[in-house]
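Note to self: user wants both folds in one dump. Writing first protein now.
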Amino acid sequence: MIDAVMPTYARYDVTLERGEGVYAFSTDGRRFLDFGAGIAVASLGHCHPHLVDALKSQAETLWHCSNLYHIPGQERLAERLVSHTFADAVFFNNSGGEAVEMGFKMMRKYHAEAGHPERYRVISVEGAFHGRSLACISSGRQEKHTAGFGPLVDGFDQVAFGNMNEMRAAITPETAGIVIEPVQGEGGIRPVDADYLKELRAVADEFGILLMYDEVQCGIGRTGKLYAHEWSGAAPDILASAKGLGGGFPIGATLATEAVADAMKAGSHGSTFGGNPLAMAVGNAVLDVVLADGFMDNVTARAEQLANGLDALVKKYPDILAGHRGMGLMQGLQCQGENGENGTLVGKLMAGGLLTVPAGDNIVRMVPPLTIEATHVEEALSILDAAVGEMTTKAA
């Protein structure tokens, strides 16, 4: 007999019941240092006091009113995102997949309004993950996500990761734009070279197409800047944001320049729950913390500490670890082999009290709360050392 909860997840044998700061606690009394953070969602850790206060206050005032009416918290959050980014306008939705989907719609609408409805195709890069909707899996084109869901949605093309010659060759009179993650998450924690992003900006301008960044996972301070693309200086036309923006509360946002946003007329898009008062209260509280003086300095310092520690582990255990890569507090430790050794290591780390997340290319993904301190990094590295050491002993 099938479980009442649809069996779409291969869950670990752990039930988490509460969290406090950078730690999560299971029903059997175990404490875990949480370097998975709900897959980069709990950006400020668990039950951050400022977020809790904001949510409680709003919950006692107004939960929902729909976008038929003005929502002050929504207007404030939009204004703050606009003032700190490339964007001129923001649409709020409920998830990263929704934020990406709207970006695809905006690309088509922009060109249609400009008299070029034939420009509807979007180019992505190998290893991409943009969400689970039919359009999103069609853009990502990873077999593990598309199997059984064919035929894929038309309108998406893909080129090799980092190959500008292929990118240019793929652009046709039907191309509307390019979508890319400045740091691939599910694809294996692969940062995109800053020069490549600059070249994408230039080629988009050259061909009159739009450049969209998927910063659902790498945004909201994860790399030491509000959004990861800021390190390159290459601004997009559209950006999808979610995960860390809500610190654990469901929220998504699609940011755009005035030229793109102006194509979206009343009735062209909508969301029942998007931009609701509860989500907006928490989103504003997250920005209160992330945009505070000195916050990004801690992210950068802890990222350097973690990266140095991971490099040392790779040198210490070359038979088990193939390398490490990442950007900011979005780090990946690559295992040797091709048979899911990363899953084995994730399991051993969990047994040792450290939560991590597997990713593509045999990567163990570490996306801890941005509020971690030096002692937490030391604790994580100690657990990693013990777990990899155990794998080394068994391999011998």
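First done. Writing the second protein, which came from a different request thread.
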Amino acid sequence: MVTSVMPTYGRIDIAFERGEGVYLYATDGRRYIDLAAGIATNSLGHAHPHLVKVLQDQAAKLWHVSNLYNIPEQQRLADRLVANSFADTVFFCNSGAEALEGAIKLARKHHYAAGDEKRDGVVACTKAFHGRTLATLSAGDNEAYRTGFGPRPGGFQHVAFGNMNEMRAAMDDTVAAILVEPVQGEGGINVADTDYLNELRVVADEFGALLVFDEVQCGMGRTGKLWAHEAANIKPDVMALAKGLGGGFPVGAVLATEKAASGMVPGTHGSTYGGNPLAVSVANAVLDVMLEDGFLDEVAAKGDYFMGRLAKIAAANPKVLKGVRGKALMIGLECEVTNADLQTKLRDAGILAVGAADNVLRFLPPLTITRDEIDEALAIFEKVVSDWS
């Protein structure tokens, strides 16, 4: 008999009743160090005092109004995102998949509005993940996720991530956009090098296509910069955000230049819940913290420390780990053993992690994790790995 909650998840038999910072507490009283953070979503940890206060204050005033009206906190959030990015304008939605859908629509409408109706193709990358809607499944590169869902929306092709020869060969006058994650999350924590990102900008300009970055997982401070693409000192035309933007509250966004968004006029796109007063108030609270002087520098420093220690543990235990890759607090453990087995052993020892492709196990802790908490996690991790070795 089917369960009342549709069985689309292979759930782990743990239920959590509360969280505090980097820790989660299960209904049986056990405490876990959360190095998954809701898959890079609880960017400031659990029950962050500032986020809690802002949410409670806003909940007592106004939850939702239609986007038929002005929403002052939405305007404030848009202004702040524009002021701290390449963008001139922002559309708000509820999730990463919605943000990618919006970005794809925007790219195609940009060319249509310019009179170039044949430009509707999107060149994406192997190992990409862009969401679970029909269109974003086509933009992504996991056949298992597509099976059984009928005809795929067309207009998407995939080239090898990091391979500029393949990217250039795929470009022509029918391509509307290049769509890339600066750091692939689900694909196995694959970090695009800065030369590759710079060449993407060059090729997009050469062929008249828009450059779209998916920073749903790697954005919002995860790599030690507010945006992962900042490492390459370039600017995309469009960027999709979600996850860490709301610190655990559902909110997504499409950021774009004025030129890229030229086709998006009243009636072309919309969302019932997108950018409602609750969501944007929490997202503004997240930015309050992330934009504080020194916050992102500390994220980068903690990431260097964490990855450096993990690399030493990996080198000492080659039967369990091949190595470590990633950027700041977006960390991938390259496993010699099965990543699911290592995830289980760590969970049994009190650490929560999340798997990825290429037999990688991800550590995506709250950006607020302290050095002492990193040391606590490392001590547990090292014991698990060395005992297994």
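Dump finished. Worth passing along: Residues 3 and 9 are 11 Å apart (CA to CA).
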